[in-house]
Amino acid sequence: MQNRTLEIGVGLFLLAGLLALLLLALRVSGLTLGSGNDAYRVYAHFDNIAGLTVRAKVTMAGVTIGKVTAIDLDRDTYTGRVTMALDNAVDNLPLDSTASILTAGLLGEKYVGISVGGEEEVLTEGSTIRDTQSSLVLEDLIGKFLLNSVNKDQAN
Amino acid sequence: MSAEKQYAVELKGLSFQRGDRSIFDNVDIRIQRGKVTGIMGPSGCGKTTLLRLIAAQLRPSQGEVWVNGQNLPTLSRSELFDMRKQMGVLFQSGALFTDLDVFENVAFPLRVHTKLPEEMVRDIVLMKLQAVGLRGAWELMPDELSGGMKRRVALARAIALDPQILMYDEPFVGQDPIAMGVLVRLIRLLNDALGITSIVVSHDLAETASIADYIYVVGDTQILGEGTPDELMNSDSPRVRQFMQGTPDGPVPFHFPAVDYRDDLLGAR
Amino acid sequence: MRKTSTLERIRLFGRAGIDVVATLGRSSVFLLHALLGRGGAGKPLQLLIKQLYAVGVMSLAIIVVSGIFIGMVLSLQGFNILSDYGSEQAVGQMVALTLLRELGPVVTALLFAGRAGSALTAEIGNMKSTEQLSSLEMIGVDPLKYIVAPRFWAGFISMPLLAMIFSVVGIWGGAMVAVDWLGVYEGSFWANMQNSVAFREDVLNGVIKSVVFGFVVTWIAVFQGYDCEPTSEGISRATTKTVVYASLAVLGLDFILTALMFGDF
């Protein structure tokens, strides 16, 4: 019957479309189900966040443990306040851990790296990381380097 | 109401404009129940428009269109669709659904409007096809049919729901003499056998005159004349006579309205 | 010929503006009538399936073939440029983002307008010129419900599916070129892609785009068919209009949607 082939064709088409969505979700975007909600927020103040963007990774020992959810200026201290959502599974970060803004490769994207501290108390929802290391700004580095060499020249 | 019984369709003070052009201006037409009424006139005078006005596919600019005691322009969209079940139209091209075969084409109105069991649909379809002499062609697709056969299948479809009013839009155009003869006979036969009111829009004089009980001649936004075929043949009106006898020039001018010929040629200099 | 005065030009301009607004209005009423109100005739699901076949399944071949080629070309071009910076492994990320955010929805919509849209216009226009639409009306079936609505829904449903299929085969074609031919390490190809592609921001936004495009392209196609002059020239003009208007609408809307989704407002 002609209707049957028609229906089978349409059925396959719909299946192919759904399969495509599934592939896009799992294989291409690496979506893992059930993440996202079980996270806690932690703040960190940086003198210069140059180039860090929302959605940037937060890593520890190279493993992604969360992401940056907001960046704004603290009006009182004139520093950049970065809000991070950290995975609930990682709930044993010492309070004196260090957050630094790093670059993946020479031209890569910025991300936040957290190195572990030694205190007993741990970071919880709403706590602030005090020990921070700002982004490396290339212009500052070059400026310092030039100043050094000029000083050396003068010394000679 | 006796008028409603006598007349299936009544147009009262009907006017219709397309853009700035007036097609009908204050026209009255009454179509008697159970008779074959011809609507004739030169090409392009709005005969098909008149059909579409009766079928409420077009809305008049002014006036009333009474069909079976209901004034169509006042009806809502869904009431109109119900109303149209009482009417059948045979379009010029037949207008068969090209993706359905002959059987399904005729069965279409039944399937849409009734919940009849399949055997009954089959019987009705075969009866209608038998009436137009094409029962043997039920398996064919529309593009396998000749023009005349298409029109007959379309006729079978138009009468599938046993309408009270059946309208024919130029049924004789482009038909060979045999097909024409078949159609003329069918129109008369269906009218008499089923008690249908038939409206035939055409400019084919001889064929229409041979089956119509009453004829309206329209042209130039007006009704030029009305009467039985015999009355019209001997009409006093020069315009009706010109049409009925087919003379090229007369009250209906040979020339399209234009500025003066001499002025037009010399005026450009 | 008489010279057109300035006033006359202004009048013509105004006339054109009125025509545009009138067409917009008519097409909106047309769509409302087709989608809302009293139910149509026959079995709506059957009609929809038939149209899904005609609109969706029949467009599948061109979508798949174009998708593979576009993915392969993207991969090739991306590799050439990225290898200058020593970051060939980012080619996966580039191919995936380009396809998901832009080329998937846009190219699919353009192909869809050419393949399915023009066919819809021609089909409906043909039905109009052979009086099949009038004939449906006289049988007491609303052609907006019976003819237009199933075709509209079929286009609306097919378009996002086609766009997703396009993206998937495009990424697959890109992976084939990058990994099997150019020798990018497979692990970093996929890892880079997965790291940078976010499901909600990239995949879903792409799907939303394709839904909007599907709506607009199908709407233009069925309206042009229904509104065309019922002659052969009228149908061919309407078919051309469908492809031109639909393509312009897709590209214009793409800019607006991209600005809304990816621009920082």
Structural notes for this entry:
The complex is a heterotrimer of chains A (about 160), B (about 270) and C (about 260). Chain A has about 160 residues and is of the alpha/beta class. Chain A has 2 domains: about 1-30; about 40-140. Chain A is built from 2 helices and 8 strands; from the N terminus they run αββββββββα. Chain A has helices at about 1-30, 140-155, and strands at about 40-45, 55-60, 65-75, 80-85, 100-105, 110-115, 130, 130-135. The longest helix of chain A is centred in the N-terminal third of the chain and has 27 residues, at about 1-30. Chain A is elongated, with a radius of gyration of 24 Å. Chain B has a 6-stranded mixed beta sheet, sandwiched between helices. In chain B, about 40% of the residues lie in helices and about 25% in strands. In chain B, a hairpin with a 2-residue loop joins β9 (about 215-220) and β10 (about 220-225). Chain B is of the alpha/beta class. Chain B is built from 11 helices and 10 strands. Chain C is mainly alpha-helical. Chain C has one domain (about 45-260). Helices cover about 85% and strands about 0% of the residues of chain C. Chain C contains 8 helices and no strands. Chain C has helices at about 5-35, 45-80, 90-130, 130-140, 145-180, 185-195, 200-225, 230-260. The longest helix of chain C is centred in the first third of the chain and has 39 residues, at about 45-80. Chain C is globular, with a radius of gyration of 22 Å. The interface of A and C includes residues 12, 17, 18, 24 and 55 of A.
